[in-house]
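In keeping with the milestone schedule agreed at the kick-off meeting, the structural modelling team has produced records for the first pair of proteins. Each record is given below as a sequence line and a structure-token line. The laboratory manager (R.T.) confirmed that both were archived under the project's standard naming scheme.
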Amino acid sequence: MSAPTHRYLSLGAGVQSSTLLLLAAQGTIPGFGAAIFADTGWEPAAVYRHLNRLTGIAKQAGIEVVRVSTGDIRADALDPGHRFASMPLFTLGPNGERGMARRQCTGEYKIKPIKAEVRRRLCYPHPARVPAGVRAEMAIGISLDEIGRARDSDVAYMRNVHPLLDLGWRRTDCLRFLAGHGLADTPKSSCVGCPFHDDGFWLGLREHSPQEWADAVAFDRAIRNGSARANADGHPLRGQFFLHRQRVPLDKVVLRPRPQPADAPGCGPWTCPHDEPATAGPGRGEVA
């Protein structure tokens, strides 16, 4: 099999992928034809600020940072005319049953647009068939402490590679590296309204980003009885959706932050630390 002639970076703008971009910009690892950021439309403001900073660093090294998107995840979830890509929302059934919805959002809003961009750059956009032997190399920011999440691509036209594993770097190595280059404040990538946030994140959002906190509270309230599409179709949820695991309105949660390890990962297209949802989620009008 011939070596890929295209090399890209899956840029989540979190710690590991930022490290890979900076290493490539310095020439420590081979460069990238593009660093691809899949924009859900609902990342924290700190992530967008950091992405702009990375874009400047990459430009000086001749690396293009491209933003791709399939839509605004928040707006789409509240749009009665839009198909709802299920988020891992916490569910509470009519008889107190506790569950969790399927997580389709990562595939729909992160992986799907990245694959579409790779196909476009290979000159075989969907639905064209990519010929055998035509493939790209996709660098993914998985470090040694997360080696269990390293896996092959599920499509023949893309080969996943993991430069941090080749270097033997852990997330703590990435943190030190970024701090040594003035990027100690690199944020964790995630949507503002991700149900996997811990109480420390929610408290920080409430105290330091009141507008984003209000946005999350409003979203939590809006999805209580299911997606806007399902409700418009006459299929309200038999139960309730919540952003917080306590399954009470977000602004009513008693937040109890616990110490978190400094190397706790964020969520990237192929590196969400919550790859396996607790249960299968509800379908139309069903409770998990």
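The second protein of the pair:
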Amino acid sequence: MDPETDALDAYSRVVSTVAATLLPSVASLTVRSRRGEGAGSAVVYTQDGFVLTSAHVVAGADADGGVAEFTDGTQTRFDVVGADPLADLAVLRIREPGVPPATLGNADDLRIGQLVVAVGNPLGLAGSVTAGVVSALGRSLPVRDGRHSRLIDDVIQTDAALNPGNSGGALADSASRVVGINTAVAGIGLGLAVPINGTTRLIMSELMSTGRVRRAWLGVAGATVPLPQPLAARLGQSKGLRLAEVVPESPAGQAGLYVGDVMLAAGGRPITGVQDVLRLMLGPAIGARLAITVLRKGALVDVVAIPAPLE
């Protein structure tokens, strides 16, 4: 057998193994709302029936949720435990647990060019599998919830074929670990997935325990700027966040931050843009001391802010 055939066989074995592992854990959703019936996909990730999907799939769902159907023909009703539109993630719970859960991975370990497999129910076709590669990492997906908007960070871009109905389905690596939740078809040959990582696991945990995600508020706005070369070499980072606005009486204002300050670090993490700040503003940050380092008139200044709840 020639090397090309060997490679194709190896590729096929990986994809078929991932499909066989994940298909029993991926549901086809029928969602009832005032607008009628909608459809999507979802992934069971705990033994006791918690299910992960996209928030937009279950937006406006009726009180009785809808129906989840699995590839073995099992049907069960589900309830919406909680949804976070600003992360485009929702946690459901099926009423008849016992479905084998998928294993969650860590999207932070992905590399461009890595094989990924999408499992879902596009166009009402249950149990569909497509494969491709990670085309890009670090993309941002704009989402909005009422008056609030933000960017979902580190979105995974893939060329695995996605179609309507794939949203909420699994994006898996070659070890059958779910590393993303397919969320959008961005164009021909282009799909996006919300990553499974430390941040989204925290969001999932809050949705499971309280049904909602609390976010903190610091009260700053700004833009990314390059740092002076000597300072960049010393810190090991080339950019910071220059503050263009500090809301009066906000946590940032009370901490002594000023317009013109360049934020370099917060909570022990480098700050290079607004999204780095937003990434820190999840529930545990509310009321906690947040150490911030800024560059002010050529000097490094340390302050402590206490983020407040975002109403």
